[in-house]
């Protein structure tokens, strides 16, 4: 999917994001991006506490984005200041929250996230559906110029684990994932390359993917307080 920004604040004339490495080839930059962010995401998977934020809010997502992209972009972790769209393989163009609405839109989403975290009684299927809804809204906000999907996957993985759900995004192919994202929120197609034809959001493809990638977490061992475990080890 190609990112469409309204000015050159973040990218050069040929559409390559300005970066700390001075890379001017888009394919090379993408390769470096994925190498670095895959390693950094792996670090977070092994040690989620690298992000010092217990609340699942916009600042947490910003911290995740900064952790993933700080080596690459000066604006890592910072909310974008220009309008943003994305063109998918199917020709649809996704339109994301306007810069001035990002914080307010996330505050609306935050209420749904808090409701999920406060709900201790819902069954797995209901929680899985709620996670899909949260992802759809967060993706529609798209607070960063680039790297929203990768940051959101880390965010959603951590949120799901708190609800005893495992998310395996590798079960979805990049193509089906990108196409599902492209129709889940506000999107349109162009007629004769000029006229916008607005299309209604279609959450079904993303929800189908979440049905496939979400499984109940398996508790491998009983967590025993360290002091009690020590006593047990000594047969007390």
Concise summary:
With 236 residues, the protein is α+β, with helices and mostly antiparallel strands. The chain has one domain (2-233): Fic-like fold.
Which descriptors apply to this entry?
single chain; 236 residues; alpha+beta; Fic-like fold; five-stranded antiparallel beta sheet; two-stranded antiparallel ribbon; 7 strands; 47% helix; globular
Walk me through what this model shows:
With 236 residues, this protein is α+β, with helices and mostly antiparallel strands. Helix content is 47%, strand content 11%. The chain has one domain: Fic-like fold (Orthogonal Bundle). The chain has helices at residues 26-46, 58-69, 102-118, 124-141, 148-162, 174-184, 204-213, 226-233; strands at 2-5, 84-87, 93-95, 165-167, 187-191, 195-199, 214-216. The strands form two sheets. A five-stranded antiparallel beta sheet has the order 1-2-3-5-6, with helices on one face. A two-stranded antiparallel sheet has the order 4-7. Helix 3 packs antiparallel against helix 4 (124-141), helix 4 (124-141) packs antiparallel against helix 5 and helix 6 (174-184) crosses helix 7 (204-213). 27% of the residues are buried.
């Amino acid at each position: 999917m190609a990112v469409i920004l309204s000015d050159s604040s973040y990218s050069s004339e040929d559409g390559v994001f300005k970066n700390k490495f001075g890379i001017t080839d888009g394919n090379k930059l993408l390769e470096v991006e994925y190498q670095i962010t895959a390693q950094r995401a792996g670090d977070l998977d092994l040690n989620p506490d690298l992000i010092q934020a217990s609340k699942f809010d916009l600042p947490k997502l910003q911290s995740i984005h900064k952790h993933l992209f700080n080596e690459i972009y000066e604006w890592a972790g910072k909310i974008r200041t220009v309008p943003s769209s994305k063109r998918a393989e199917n020709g649809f163009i996704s339109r994301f929250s306007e810069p001035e609405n990002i914080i307010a839109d996330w505050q609306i989403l935050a209420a749904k996230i808090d409701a999920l975290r406060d709900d201790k009684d819902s069954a797995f299927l209901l929680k899985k559906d709620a996670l899909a809804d949260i992802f759809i809204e967060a993706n529609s906000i798209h607070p960063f110029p680039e790297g929203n999907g990768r940051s959101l996957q880390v965010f959603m993985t951590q949120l799901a684990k708190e609800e005893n759900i495992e998310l395996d995004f590798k079960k979805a192919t990049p193509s089906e994932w990108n196409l599902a994202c492209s129709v889940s929120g506000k999107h349109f197609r162009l007629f004769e390359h000029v006229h916008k034809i607005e299309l209604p959001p279609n959450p079904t493809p993303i929800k189908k993917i979440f049905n496939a990638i979400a499984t109940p977490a398996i508790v491998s061992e009983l967590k025993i307080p360290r002091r009690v475990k020590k006593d047990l080890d000594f047969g007390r």
